[in-house]
Amino acid sequence: MRIISIYRAVEKNVPPTPEQMTKMGQLMEELTKSGVLVAVGGCMPSATGARVRMSGGKLTVTDGPFTEAKEVVAGFGIYQVNSKEEAIELSKRFLKLAGDGETELRQMYEEP
Fold first, then answer.
1. Spatial distance between the Cα atoms of 78 and 3, rounded to a whole number of angstroms
2. pLDDT tens across 5-64, in order?
3. What is the pLDDT of residue 16?
4. Alpha helices (runs of H) in the chain, residue ranges in sequence order
5. How far is residue 89 from each of residues 12, 37, 68, 94, 111, measured CA to CA in Å?
6. Contact in structure between 78 and 2 (CB atoms under 8 Å)
7. Which residues contact 16 (CB under 8 A, 6 or more apart)?
8. Strand 58-63 versus strand 50-55 pairing type
């Protein structure tokens, strides 16, 4: 099963330390080589983004930053795993390196 892990972090203007980047790189390399990590990506700060919303047939566009949100989507990963429990364990490993935040795990639709 494929699962997308959506990482939400408390937005801050402090980049990761070199040690954090090294450890994260090691984890990503391990998971990629094992075939578990299918794709990964990070997001720029919300100040560079926009929200496009449809409500009642009307489209609105709001430029970032999104100050009303305490947590913003900071990145994602797509896992190829055997169970939701396996994805949860991967997310625990990731968050121990990434720090404060949360991951939302969602199984992806796949053609039978």
1. 6
2. 999 887 666 677 899 889 999 999 999 999 999 999 988 888 888 989 999 999 999 998
3. 78
4. 18-33, 84-98
5. 26, 13, 30, 9, 26
6. yes
7. 24
8. antiparallel
Contact 9, 74 (CB under 8 A): yes
- The better pLDDT of the pair 66, 50 is held by 50
Superfamily of domain 2-107: Dimeric alpha+beta barrel (3.30.70.1060)
The DSSP secondary structure of 12-35, one letter per residue, reads: -S-PPPHHHHHHHHHHHHHHHHTT
Residue spans of the domains in the chain: they are: 2-107
Question: From CA 1, how far away is CA 43, in angstroms rounded?
Answer: 24
Give me the pLDDT at residue 106, please: 96
